[in-house]
């Protein structure tokens, strides 16, 4: 607040006495303002603190029990935040009486409430009820459309088509939700060709990127081809005249899926090297659908000149796998990537992988793979193509004997891929025996991640012999439930397929542990296992007082080797998850932990504070805190292996992916550094994680 001191003190001609009086008045006024602001701030702070320390713990006692009836008593709570969190909790909580539940949701009519309906299975009669409500209650159409997009059927699509003119009318406040429902349903259900053409023509000229992508989402995600040439042309025109990179990405993808050569011939090349990152990645992914040509060489060269490493990586993967790639293109790979000092080690290794002749660059691959242990897998792939089977086995054997568990893990992955690709004539008895020896060396290390990868390999490699059961039983003796449940789950299928009779006593002893998840897996694998009622999950109790100390939307800072990412955390939506993150952050557990998974144009994933490879986590579990928010670019979620299995691993969205909605916890949103997110590669590190102090 700025005050005009001159005006407050009147004119300069007043006596000194008057001036002193004026100054005193001004100071008194300023003091009152400061007190008022401070009092207001304290009042807001105490309201937030009271909400977190008094109201949330009571609600969470029932969330931890997944007691829907008790949680429902909170949807009428006088405080809006509690009402909203109760509805969000019901997204992941089993509901017995869906008819009564829908009635409750109908009268609440909030997005959180309808999102909870969308996450539960509804009967045909309940769906018909929603159709009737949609027809007769326009105020409910936004929420019901959200449900129809996930649970709808042919009748749902017919309903939306019938009322399409109302959906796009000026008075409609639900077009986006209805558009996404139409976009999803038209892929799975029948729509007349004329009707589809009319709707897609309407969508094709939209400049609102949210609406455009909603109508086109089904086509984009399914990869289904348009058959009508006029429709393909109409979709492609959006690529040519719309500035939005999000719309252009969808237009490019749908056009290439429909007629790749036609679309590629119309593709301008001039701006590719400076293209929006997501659009450039989409283009790189689509290039595998067209024949090799001078124009394709030009496109690839532009993609390799792009400053974003993920764009380079996707392009190099496509070049490597392109059946028509001529050896002459190696010169471009060498100059643009391999000998380009501006490119990072991971990209230069991918460049070597894409060469027709990799042998001149083995020393360089050795050098670059030493910069990051996550790059070993690329080095092993390079050597695989230039080594004899015996030479390659010797190399893998050396890595398997390493004391570095990540080195061993990547060697196990490489062994699996190499043996699967090896010609049958090269799988001699001596080599098979050596591979068997390496496999059991891997299993005997007692490492959960390595064992999981190795057992998956064993199931498909035809390496087992009848006498191996005792060795497997000894391997399993190194593990225990519930900590190593994934190991027992992956072994269950192998034992059923190869040692059913011998393994029966072992399986019986495991079922006595009454581990619901394990027993369900064993039953699905073919074992005769009694169904048992699930034991209540034990969750980490949030530190509510500590959460109250954090700000309303505290900023979680991830300093990485590529730059800084700042995330505004939504404590009131995901307090249990964020409390766990807070404890790990203050303990330094996230420091020096790599991003172990990167899926271009989807997510980056990190936070495995135990093993760093995606198989690990903390010594606690937190409940799923599903959200009614959408998974858009920059949203941050918590990875899980199913409802109520969340821990420390988080992921950050590259772009909008509505199929994730209501399925995962959302902890916050990137407010600074989304460009850093775009540059993250597998193996990049969070060097330090901490809370921003304001």
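Sequence proposed for the structure above (694 residues):
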């Amino acid at each position: 607040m700025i005050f005009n001191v001159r005006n407050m003190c009147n004119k300069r001609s007043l006596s000194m006495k008057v001036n002193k009086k004026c100054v005193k008045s001004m100071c008194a006024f300023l003091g009152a303002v400061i007190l008022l602001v401070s009092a207001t701030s304290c009042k807001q702070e105490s309201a937030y603190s009271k909400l977190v320390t008094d109201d949330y713990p009571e609600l969470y006692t029932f969330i931890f029990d997944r007691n829907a009836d008790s949680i429902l008593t909170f949807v009428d709570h006088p405080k809006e935040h509690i009402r909203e969190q109760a509805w969000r909790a019901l997204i992941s909580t089993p509901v017995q009486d869906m008819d009564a539940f829908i009635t409750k949701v109908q009268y609440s009519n909030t997005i959180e409430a309808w999102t909870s309906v969308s996450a539960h299975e509804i009967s045909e009669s309940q769906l018909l009820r929603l159709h009737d409500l949609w027809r007769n209650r326009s105020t409910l159409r936004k929420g019901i459309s959200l449900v129809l997009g996930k649970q709808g059927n042919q009748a749902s699509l017919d309903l939306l088509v019938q009322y399409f003119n109302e959906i796009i009318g000026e008075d409609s406040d639900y077009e986006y939700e209805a558009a996404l429902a139409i976009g999803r349903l038209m892929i799975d259900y029948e729509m007349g060709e004329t009707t589809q053409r009319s709707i897609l023509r309407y969508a094709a000229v939209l400049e609102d990127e949210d609406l455009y992508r909603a109508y086109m989402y089904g086509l984009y995600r399914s990869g289904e081809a348009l058959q009508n040439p006029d429709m393909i042309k109409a979709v492609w025109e959006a690529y040519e005249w719309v500035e939005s990179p999000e719309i252009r990405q969808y237009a490019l993808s749908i056009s290439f899926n429909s007629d790749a050569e036609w679309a590629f011939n119309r593709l301008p090349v001039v701006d590719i090297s400076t293209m929006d990152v997501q659009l450039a990645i989409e283009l790189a992914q689509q290039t595998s659908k067209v024949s090799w040509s001078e124009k394709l060489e030009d496109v690839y060269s532009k993609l390799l000149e792009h400053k974003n490493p993920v764009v380079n990586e996707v392009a190099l993967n496509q070049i490597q796998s392109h059946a028509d790639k001529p050896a002459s293109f190696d010169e471009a790979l060498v100059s643009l990537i391999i000998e380009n000092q501006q490119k990072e080690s991971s990209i230069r290794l991918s460049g070597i992988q894409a060469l027709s002749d990799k042998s001149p660059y083995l020393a360089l691959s050795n050098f670059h793979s030493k910069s990051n242990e996550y790059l070993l897998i690329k080095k092993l792939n390079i050597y695989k193509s230039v080594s004899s089977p015996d030479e390659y086995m010797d190399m893998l054997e050396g890595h398997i004997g390493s004391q570095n568990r990540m080195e061993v893990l990547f060697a196990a992955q490489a062994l699996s891929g190499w043996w699967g690709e090896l010609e049958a004539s090269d799988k001699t008895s001596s080599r098979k025996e050596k591979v068997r020896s390496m496999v059991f060396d891997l299993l005997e290390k007692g490492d959960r991640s390595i064992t999981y990868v190795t057992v998956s390999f064993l199931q498909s490699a035809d390496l087992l012999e009848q006498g191996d059961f005792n060795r497997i039983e000894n391997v399993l003796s190194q593990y225990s439930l519930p900590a190593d449940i994934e190991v027992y789950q992956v072994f269950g299928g192998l034992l059923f397929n190869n040692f059913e009779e011998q393994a029966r006593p072992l399986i019986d002893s495991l079922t006595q542990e009454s581990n619901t998840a394990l027993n369900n897996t064993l039953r699905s694998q073919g074992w005769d296992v009694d169904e048992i009622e699930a034991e209540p999950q034990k969750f980490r109790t949030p530190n509510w007082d500590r959460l109250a100390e954090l700000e309303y939307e505290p900023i979680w800072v991830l300093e990485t080797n590529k730059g800084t990412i700042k995330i505004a955390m939504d404590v009131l939506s995901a307090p249990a998850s964020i409390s766990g993150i807070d404890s790990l952050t203050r303990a330094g557990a996230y420091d020096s932990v790599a991003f172990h998974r990167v899926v271009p144009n989807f997510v980056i994933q990190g936070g495995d504070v135990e093993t760093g490879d995606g198989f690990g986590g903390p010594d606690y579990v937190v409940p799923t805190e599903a959200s009614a928010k959408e998974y858009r670019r920059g949203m941050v979620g918590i990875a899980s292996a199913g409802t109520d299995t969340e821990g420390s691993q988080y992921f950050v969205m590259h772009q909008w992916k509505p199929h994730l909605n209501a399925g995962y916890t959302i902890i916050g949103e990137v407010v600074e550094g989304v460009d850093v997110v775009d540059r993250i590669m597998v193996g990049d590190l969070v060097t330090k994680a901490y809370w921003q102090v304001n």
